[in-house]
Amino acid sequence: MIRKAFKMKLFPNKVQEYTQRHNPIWPELEDTLKKHGVTNYSIFLDSDTDTLFGYAEIESEEKWNAIAETTICKKWWAYMADLMETHDDNSPVSKELNSVFYMS
């Protein structure tokens, strides 16, 4: 199992809409994540900066990266693009974070 952490940025005043769209996420997207080896996926918000902190446990980097090629993921990105910073393909601008401490 690989622990993955990353941050993303919401546009101002988009927290409520972002939260609503995730509760619940589309069942097909959740199924895709699970089929690609993703578990314990959480997203947290720093409300002072509208920065999102994502944490997921993944089976492999290869399976994680393959999610981006699925139709449902691309549809989700398009659905969320008006709420957050994105690239031209609607994928979220994301900064991977490095682990500096872990206790199990």
TrEMBL record:
NCBIfam families associated with the record: YiiL_rotase (TIGR02625)
The keyword Ribonucleoprotein is annotated on this UniProt entry: no
One GO term of the biological process aspect: rhamnose catabolic process
The name this protein goes by in its record: L-rhamnose mutarotase
One cellular component term from this protein's GO annotations in UniProt: cytoplasm
EC number: 5.1.3.32
Database matches in PANTHER family: L-RHAMNOSE MUTAROTASE (PTHR34389:SF2)
GO molecular function terms attached to this record: L-rhamnose mutarotase activity
Enzyme class: isomerase
Keywords: Carbohydrate metabolism, Cytoplasm, Isomerase, Rhamnose metabolism
